[in-house]
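Action item from last meeting closed. Structure (176 res):
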């Protein structure tokens, strides 16, 4: 019978049980609704790959659970904090440094970063590309992308923090 279910019938039949399961995992209605919606979205995209139509229920519940676990991993890796809670982790930025910099100067400084890091940093910050997109474009592993961006940013920070005399000579700061 499940093999004959349309998408609407599938939603009608399984949305309540999936919602109850999601509530047991998330304990908030909004998060539970998001999980159920994501599960049905995944079904719409990949459900056709299910070879045994009698396993629709199992597939939906497994997908919801995996989606929840993936979200939990992201929360652990990238916790959402109030600004006051994360204040100790924020970088210290000198006001005079901010006043001296402009976008053009930062791009110029990026040109001084080691070649192997430049492309990854530029694609991420200037072109707004994701890590997987950068990995594909540069034909390097995802971990290498992350490493190159981190190292490139570290070099860029050193260049930005150089004494004001370097910036002043370029006409961006006060004259000396």
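Sequence:
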């Amino acid at each position: 019978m499940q093999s004959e279910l349309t998408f609407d019938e599938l939603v009608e039949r399984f949305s309540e049980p999936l919602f109850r399961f999601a509530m047991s995992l998330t304990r908030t209605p909004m998060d539970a609704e998001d999980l159920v919606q994501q599960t049905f979205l995944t079904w719409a995209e990949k459900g056709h790959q299910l070879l045994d139509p009698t396993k629709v229920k199992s597939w939906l519940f497994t997908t919801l659970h995996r989606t929840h676990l993936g979200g939990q991993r992201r929360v652990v890796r990238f916790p959402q904090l109030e600004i006051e809670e994360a204040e100790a982790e924020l970088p210290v930025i000198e006001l005079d440094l901010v006043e001296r910099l402009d976008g053009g100067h930062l791009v110029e400084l990026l040109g001084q970063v080691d070649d192997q890091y430049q492309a990854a940093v530029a694609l991420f910050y200037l072109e707004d590309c994701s890590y997987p997109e950068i990995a594909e474009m540069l034909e390097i592993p995802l971990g290498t992308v992350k490493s190159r961006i981190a190292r490139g940013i570290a070099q860029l920070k050193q260049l930005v923090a150089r004494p004001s005399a370097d910036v002043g000579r370029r006409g961006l700061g006060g004259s000396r």
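Note appended to the action item: The CA atoms of residues 23 and 32 lie 5 Å apart.
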